[in-house]
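Handout, section 4.2: multi-component inputs.
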Amino acid sequence: GESVGLHLPTLSVQEGDNSIINCAYSNSASDYFIWYKQESGKGPQFIIDIRSNMDKRQGQRVTVLLNKTVKHLSLQIAATQPGDSAVYFCAENIDAGGTSYGKLTFGQGTILTVHP
Amino acid sequence: DVKVTQSSRYLVKRTGEKVFLECVQDMDHENMFWYRQDPGLGLRLIYFSYDVKMKEKGDIPEGYSVSREKKERFSLILESASTNQTSMYLCASSLVGGGNYGYTFGSGTRLTVV
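Output:
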């Protein structure tokens, strides 16, 4: 089916470690992917995005990897800090030939907990 | 620099009341969305609008309606609130065109129906 999901619902790491959050998608027509971070009591915030014509994109301390062969997306956070503790969502946009109006489909989310 | 503003952070309403949730964006975005977020269910799309006075049903429109009279404002209406509509409601907006499909979210409204 057309869905976006996560392999692990929770992830606990020590401060300073690198974190990897994974996401699987099933629709080969997906052309755009986004990672969002949601802190407790707040709305989701954009972290980083990647288009389907790319394999990797880097931001500040974050890297997104896209493997279209196995329909897998990951978010890597370097030197994880306590402030990174949050729920992380992946989202995909399915290319529907211009009729999708930019409507994203969201995964369930992974809870990242960073221990000092 | 808040770009998507939801009028209330917390609301408590009684069963049967008519409830209005307001959302305003200042980015001149064409698309606006209303989601509800519940533990274990993720983000579920209620309604979206791609232009003024235009609306489309999302995945769970039952019990809700929307209004978009101006480009910057998208209102979610619970015609007769019920306890199963207790949830976090998130508004978002996005541009259309240019391959930019990212959403900007508001801070959310936590609604409790008693």
